[in-house]
Amino acid sequence: FIDSFNVGGVAFISQAVLALAPSKQTGLVVLMGLNKCSVGPVIDGFAAHDATVATRVGGVTVTRALRHLLGASRALPDDVPDTILDDMKRRHCVVAPSMEAAVDSERRITSVTYELPDGFAVPIGAERVLAAEVLFAPAVCGAGLAPADAVGLPDAVLRALERTGADDELEAALLGNVVIVGGPSLTPGLKARLQSELESRVGVGVVNVVAPRGRGHGSWAGRTFTAARFEELPPRLKARFILRDEYNELGPSVVHRRCW
After folding, report:
1. pLDDT > 60? residue 50
2. Fewer CB within 10 A of the terminal residue: the chain, N end or C end?
3. What is the DSSP letter of 133?
4. DSSP letters for 191-250
5. pLDDT tens per residue across span 142-170
6. What whole-number distance in Å separates Cα of residue 142 and Cα of residue 155?
7. What is the pTM of this model?
């Protein structure tokens, strides 16, 4: 890599650590992707891989839920491609403040209209709220949309915390910096809902859910930050880089010495 791209150094760092890089060095990183979400504890700049919890719900699951709900109401033609549903989701889906509010959304939510390329107008009411509930309660929108063993985001966060075996001080540090990143984290209302759900289980004033700028790009923002501010990095993170001089002296074998 160093030879091929003529760079000054390289480091192999997990996505969770990179997502956390612009902020504190300890926290719970919620990586939200297309097909799954994972919660990775990071302690003093190092990922606790054994404590990571993954759940097989993500952006695609919300898209499937939206299609299912609109199909059930006969508001959506059967041949609408997923790319259109994705755009509909990004424009109009929101997360309700609670499960009860989501269920009650049919009476309270303001309906919107999405125009398909052929001019057909699709009315979207409670569906734009209920679709995102699959991230918190995977079974809520019907069977087949998420695996039977999938868990919601709050459960995944608390399971990851439990796996760390953290004492009271470390637990407070982890819960005090719950960072959400990835495309689905941009859904309006998601940060507040996750904050509320976690507070209802561990207590008010304990949890701080953080939604950083650029979170839609996930760990890429952390990569840029880390590379651009190498000299300012904490010593433990800086020590994980293989610099060109070291590579020239020891050769490719240095990768096996420095990476684990």
Report:
1. yes
2. C
3. G
4. HHHHHHHHHHHH-TTT--EE--TTGGGTHHHHHHHHHHTGGGS-HHHHTT-EEHHHHHHH
5. 567 888 889 999 999 999 999 999 999 99
6. 19
7. 0.88
